[in-house]
Amino acid sequence: MRMAILGAALLALSAPAFAEPDLTGFWNLSFEAGDPPADLVAKLPPDTVIIADTGVVEFPEGEYGGLKLKPEALAKAKAWKPADEMTLSRVCLAPSIVYAIQGPFPFEVFQTPELIVFKYEYFDQVRLVHMDGRSHPRADAPHSKMGHSIGHWEGDELVVDTTHIAASTITNNGLDHSADIHMVERYRLSPDGKRLMATQWFEDPAVLDNNGARFIQWAKQAGQYVFPYECDPAFALEYQEAGKAGQ
């Protein structure tokens, strides 16, 4: 009897203090996101504005959701026109994770203790989140649209810190970020495990005088798959022809 009690005690001591949530599965955007939980908002750094452009919402020209642009970034954004993106060289150019995460496309999560993989349908992008305690590489290491992500658990929240993101889009109306942008996300499952909530915070002092954040929520769907995106650049030619016909 004593040995059984001792064995149970040792097992309890050796067990992890908290079992990490399992984010594995197929996630699709929830169109009933509602307001972000107050405790998640409270964890955002000071001087942060939550911009409301998630899902299918797109800001009109000149609207940046409360982000305060540096003069050079503002001038560049004001000069932007939608037709700028509808060229053979740009129409199939993937955005960075800063913009890609907020869209209406689904993704799959594959989770292990040392690595979490996000497989996005949008532009067939794949993202690795290193959970093995490594640091970010040197500042002069290569940058990419997915960046370099390291993660850790804080209780039931997955915290992902991302740097080394190649310059790309913040909002789809001419506001671009620099290659020095820094992004931090917090992911949390709902109590029933059917919804995944996240805040996405970013800072970019070269472009912004304040910080930005988004609140995004996805619904879990069993038996679904991420399909190939297969962007066809010929769409740019169709767009141009349609524009000529409308003149």
Give the overall pLDDT as a whole number: 90
The helix/strand series, from N terminus to C terminus, equals: HEHEHHEEEEEEEEEEH
Question: Helical element count?
Answer: 5
Order of strands across the widest beta sheet?
1-3-4-5-6-7-10-11-12
Keywords: Signal
Signal peptide: 1-19
What topology emerges from the helices and strands here?
Elements: H1 2-14, E1 25-29, H2 38-42, E2 48-50, H3 71-79, H4 97-100, E3 107-111, E4 115-120, E5 126-130, E6 148-154, E7 157-163, E8 168-171, E9 175-177, E10 182-189, E11 195-203, E12 211-220, H5 234-245
Parallel strand pairs: 2-12, 5-6
Antiparallel strand pairs: 1-3, 1-12, 3-4, 4-5, 6-7, 7-10, 8-9, 10-11, 11-12
Keywords: Signal
